[in-house]
Amino acid sequence: MNADEPTGAAAPPNPADGPTVATPPSGVSVPAREVPVVFTGSGGEYFRVWIVNIALSLLTLGIYSAWAKVRNRRYFYGHTTVEGIAFDYTADPIAILKGRVIVVGALLTYSLTASVWPDVEPVMFVLALPLVPWVVNRAMAFNARYSAHRGLRFGFDGSYWPAFRALIGWPALGIATFGLLYPLAVQRRRRYLMGQHRFGSSQARCEPTVGPFYRAYAGASLIAVSGLALIVVASGGLDPFERPQDAFACSLAPVSSMVFYTLAGTAATLLTFITVTTYLQTRIGNHVWSRTALDGHRFVLAMQYRRMLAIQLTNALLIIATLGLAIPWAKVRTTRYRVQSMHLVVAGSLATFTAGPRARESALGQELGDAIDLDLGL
Amino acid sequence: MISLTARYFDGRTSASHQVTASLHDDGTLRLVGAGIDRRGPLTAVRIADRLGNVPRALWLPDGAKLETPDNDAVDAMVATLPPGRRALGLVHRLERQWRFALGALAVTAVLAFLGVEYVLPAAAERVAMLAPVELEHALGEETLEALDGTLFAPSELPPETAGSVIVRFEHLRRAVGFDAALRLELRSAPAIGANAFALPGGILVVTDELVTLLEDDYDALAAVLAHEVGHVLERHSLRAALQSSATALLIASVLGDVTSLSGLAATLPTVLVDARYSRRFEADADREAIRILLRMGVSPAALATALEAIERSHGGAGEVPGYLSSHPPTADRLERARAAAVTGRVPGKD
């Protein structure tokens, strides 16, 4: 069987041409080549998809939103290509709809119970905590199982205790040490969430080092501190967390200074928020992806902070000025930059991955777990 | 016969094979490529709905997949299927054309307007009236504490002046016949100037600056208090809080996934919508104040006197545009109060 690789003309024939051998044996020198990841979506096309799906969701009182979600995600997956081959998202909207009903029901029960018996809330929180690893594992598995590329599905092989350590144990330690171990906790979480993924039968290897996480958080802290100073100044010297805007008071006559401080304070808060999160996302995202490999093929993500910040800030301005209508263009712009900042270092060919095991179905809670579909940005 | 070229993946490996897929008149789909020759009924193939120019996926029953950029040829194949199998093609037809997209935008705008203008305020009113009074008290105490830490300082009024304000307040409380816990607080607030506030749970705050400004005009002082009592009676503070958070939540959920993007989109609309709600509450409180004043036998013109004095004392500093303003234009408020003074009737809702 000969793989037909359109852009892989320069690639040598596979050393071992068979469906079961996926990794070129180490030591055998296979010339690596860079393969770009390409994004072909456009803002105008996506705007039409986006607004039609919003209108349909509103007209159906939210029921259509599950179908809208699949279409929105398919748009971005389908326009992301490697060697001209697209990604695909194939989740069943009915499963997503069921999941949303369950999640909304659970949240309503939680908040209603919490507001009627406030004393019960901490108890419920503690009781819900052990569910987190399970829920996250199921959500990641759901998302991965319905993501496909080259006719093969992705997968996420989570297990409870590793997830518990990565998602609850380490963050708890991070808090207990007043944030000293927090970057380490984030490194553990990212490593777990990325490393449990597989493509077909090939397990991802994700080995981020700890140093870049500490450097990223140190930089972000510096930005945050100067941002906080800016917020205090813009809020008229008032404590930003106790600004009178948050006070529920009706006045007799307009308090004009409040309007000004509210607007300036909000602007400063937004600016700080965007600057800090963009910094963390680019620094940590670059590092985690660049330390990830799949069967000897490596990923390289090289987003530039300044460039990404410029994109995010102009996006924010456009979105605010258009009351949200610019969101599709903003999403396409950000995705294009993020996707095009990535390339693969391919050792040999991308045609030799094999299908993974069929999803292991656990009878108990499968319906529920399948349905829980959370948006966890990787 | 319809044919197209596609990539073929067998579902067992990631190898891509170039094939020609052709649909015969009897409904058979045939795939031909290097070492590949398969055929089967098109009805057994799961064809993804069209979505813009995203490459189309066709899944064969055994897990093999075809991927092709030739969406039009796939559409022609789908058109040969019985109507029941083409359901979501309709969505693509809406998404394809700008005029439908603009129609969808209009539908969204109208529904958002109806929701924000009618549904949300009605729901917030219903919920606020059901909310336990203790909740409002707690909210009011927190708010007063926050303001005491920032804009308010202890009152510096001479005891006899403060005493006469309190006497006036007690008089008003009897006239209203409202026995819920109304409480009057006096505060010095140099940064704000002459003003009065209604906090959740029936806490009224009058600034020293306002008492000094109105001197011995007890009718004007009564009008000020009546306006704030109007806020309390209609539970405006709580309703404003509910409406404000519901607006932000609504916008975030309409715009899709809960990301920082939709949060951003909510900022300006939330400010504008909150200001609009606030103006409506102020007009309602003015109306309630007029009702109370008429019942007390005080001319509603007293409200106009108070508002005019306050505006003069603020000197027009820091004017904001009308759509950002938390209150209706003062001229409108004056006119309504004076009209009520002449007719002796409470103005209707506009």
List key phrases describing it.
heterodimer; A: 378 residues; alpha+beta; ten-stranded antiparallel β-barrel; 12 helices; 54% helix; 13% strand; globular; disordered N terminus; B: 350 residues; PH-domain like; 2 domains; seven-stranded antiparallel β-sheet; four-stranded mixed β-sheet; 11 helices; rod-shaped
Concise synopsis of the structure shown:
The complex is a heterodimer of chains A (378) and B (350). Chain A has helices at residues 43-59, 65-78, 93-116, 120-128, 131-145, 160-176, 182-195, 211-234, 256-290, 305-321, 327-340, 366-371; strands at residues 32-39, 80-82, 85-89, 147-149, 152-156, 197-199, 202-206, 250-251, 292-294, 297-301, 342-347.
How many DSSP E strands of chain A?
A: 11
Most extensive interface, chain pair and sizes: A-B, 88 and 105 residues
Q: List the domain count of chain B as a whole number.
A: 2
Shape of chain B: rod-shaped
Spatial order of strands in the largest sheet of chain A = 1-2-3-4-5-6-7-9-10-11
Biggest sheet details of chain B = 7 strands, antiparallel
Major beta sheet, strand line-up of chain B: 4-3-2-1-7-6-5
**N-to-C CA distance of chain B:** 67 Å
Mean pLDDT of chain B: 85
Name the helicity range of chain B. Answer: 40-55%
Produce the secondary structure layout:
The complex is a heterodimer of chains A (378) and B (350).
Chain A: E1 32-39, H1 43-59, H2 65-78, E2 80-82, E3 85-89, H3 93-116, H4 120-128, H5 131-145, E4 147-149, E5 152-156, H6 160-176, H7 182-195, E6 197-199, E7 202-206, H8 211-234, E8 250-251, H9 256-290, E9 292-294, E10 297-301, H10 305-321, H11 327-340, E11 342-347, H12 366-371
Antiparallel strand pairs in A: 1-2, 1-11, 2-3, 3-4, 4-5, 5-6, 6-7, 7-9, 9-10, 10-11
Chain B: E1 2-9, E2 17-23, E3 28-33, E4 36-41, E5 46-47, E6 56-59, E7 65-68, H1 71-78, H2 89-96, H3 98-130, H4 133-148, E8 153-154, H5 159-176, E9 183-188, E10 196-199, E11 203-207, H6 208-214, H7 218-233, H8 236-254, H9 260-296, H10 301-314, H11 330-343
